[in-house]
Every structure is written in structure tokens, then in C-alpha cells.
Design brief:
By secondary structure, the chain is α/β, with parallel strands linked by helices. The chain has a domain of 173 residues: Rossmann fold. Helix 2 crosses helix 3 and helix 6 packs parallel to helix 7. The strands form 3 sheets. It has a 6-stranded mixed β-sheet, with helices on both faces. Keywords: ATP-binding, Nucleotide-binding. This is Fe-S cluster assembly ATPase SufC.
């Protein structure tokens, strides 16, 4: 589903290389986790995949469902089904969350040549999905993420995914700032999205998230590339022993 070959990427107008020959393949229906120390390039990978400005691909290729997406704008990648849950979700003062999610959904449907969702149908949909994450209608009427706790922001990120139903989810340290109760709720929402026709890339520092979102494969990232891959047991090894041997090898 997602195939990355020899990916090199830089910031600061190409002066600071971050990704240095990264190879990764995530098949349809699978959940892959990427773990690694700070500065290894995990978040940069998520930004490059979703087309964020300021991150320049200097070599290599990213294919999504057989299509080279390197020249696509972020909104075009989103319409094709790529979704990024941010480590630090942004606040949008003055824009009600309900309006934001409905406009996002209809913009993507329009880009795919589909009919927009009517207001009554959208309200039925949002109530159904919000119930999964214990998100109240009062929260949905507030401006996007304004005054929300860290856990509430992460729940809102997953709610958007439940509504948009992307083909491929990238979760960038979704567990950051969550207490154990919030982590369970968010993980339930993520697990509700697991499907034979959907894949996920879970980026995290810690094994605890993977207790709730069980990965099919775990990759270790260091110095801008994947340096080791294995099953779920690899995450437990990293939790016990740390990243030192992989950092030295990289």
C-alpha cells in the first residue's frame, strides 16, 4: 500500500539532511510501528509523507497504492486517503469544530468526485463517531482545540479520522501527553479503524502505546533510516534495553 524507496529529505532549503536513504513498505491491512530516539527523523518522515512545506525530498520515491505522490500537494494526498494525526495538534480560534470537520469531509469528497454529505446525515455520523471517543457535543461546538487538554486534542484527532475514514493513517506520537485513561480511549478509537483495506504507521517513543495498538511489525529508526525490523517483541526489547546498540550501528 505504502512503499518508500531510498528516501532522502532535508530542511533549511536542503542544507540539513534528515532522512538518509530510508526504505519502508507497509502492506494493506497491517499496522507498522516506528520507534527511535529523538532526532532520528520519525516526525520528519510523517511530514514528508503528507507533503508539508519546508521538507524537501532530494532523492528516492514514495508510492501510495502504486502512485508516485512526490509531486502532490498536501490536500491532494489527503483526498487520496493519507491522514496525519499530529503530535501537537494546532488550535484554530473562531472555527467551530463541527464546521471544521464537516468542511474537511466535504472537501475531500468533492476532490474525489463524490457528493457532499448533507447536514442531517453529517450530524448522525458525527454523533455516532463521537460516542466511540466520549466526545460531547459541547466540545464539538467549541473552536478547534482551543482550551482543550492534551488528551482532548488527541481524541479530536482520532474523531476526525473516524469521520474521514482515510486509507492510511500516520499517528505521530499520539500517546504524547496522555494519561492512562485517555490512552485507552484514543487507542479504542484507533483500533476501531483497523481494516483489511486500511493500513497504519504508528510513530512512538514508548512501548506502552503498542500494548493497546498491537502492531504487525516494528521498525527501529536511527540517523534518518530504518536500521532494524521485527515483530512486536522488538518493541519490548527496546523498552528493556534502549536504543544504544542501534544508534551505534547507525
Amino acid at each position: 500500500m505504502l512503499d518508500i524507496s531510498n528516501l532522502h529529505a532535508s530542511v533549511d532549503n536542503g542544507e540539513k539532511p534528515i532522512l538518509k536513504g530510508l526504505d519502508l513498505s507497509v502492506p494493506k491491512g497491517e499496522v507498522h510501528a516506528i520507534m527511535g530516539p529523538n532526532g532520528s527523523g520519525k516526525s520528519t518522515l510523517s511530514y514528508v509523507l503528507t507533503g508539508r512545506d519546508g521538507y524537501d525530498v532530494t532523492e528516492g520515491k514514495v508510492s501510495f497504492e502504486g502512485e508516485d505522490i512526490g509531486d502532490l500537494e498536501p490536500e491532494e494526498r489527503a483526498a487520496r486517503g493519507l491522514y496525519l494525526s499530529f503530535q501537537y495538534p494546532v488550535e484554530i480560534p473562531g472555527v467551530p469544530t463541527l464546521t471544521f470537520i464537516r468542511e474537511s469531509l466535504n472537501a475531500q469528497r468533492k476532490a474525489r468526485g463524490e457528493e457532499e454529505v448533507s447536514a442531517p446525515d453529517f450530524m448522525r455520523l458525527i454523533r455516532e463517531k463521537a460516542a466511540i471517543l466520549n466526545v460531547s457535543m459541547d466540545m464539538l461546538k467549541r473552536p478547534v482545540n482551543v482550551g482543550f487538554s492534551g488528551g482532548e486534542k488527541k481524541r479530536m484527532e482520532i474523531l476526525q479520522a473516524l469521520v474521514l475514514e482515510p486509507r492510511f493513517l500516520i499517528l505521530d506520537e499520539t500517546d504524547s501527553g496522555l494519561d492512562i485513561d485517555a490512552l485507552k480511549v484514543v487507542s479504542d478509537g484507533v483500533n476501531a479503524l483497523r481494516s483489511p483495506d486500511r493500513a497504519m504507521l504508528v510513530i512512538t517513543h514508548y512501548q506502552r502505546l503498542l500494548d493497546y495498538i498491537a502492531p504487525d511489525k516494528v521498525h527501529v529508526m536511527s540517523a534518518g533510516r530504518i536500521v532494524a525490523s521485527g515483530g512486536p517483541e522488538l518493541a519490548k526489547e527496546l523498552e528493556a534495553e534502549g536504543y544504544d546498540k542501534y544508534v551505534r550501528a547507525a
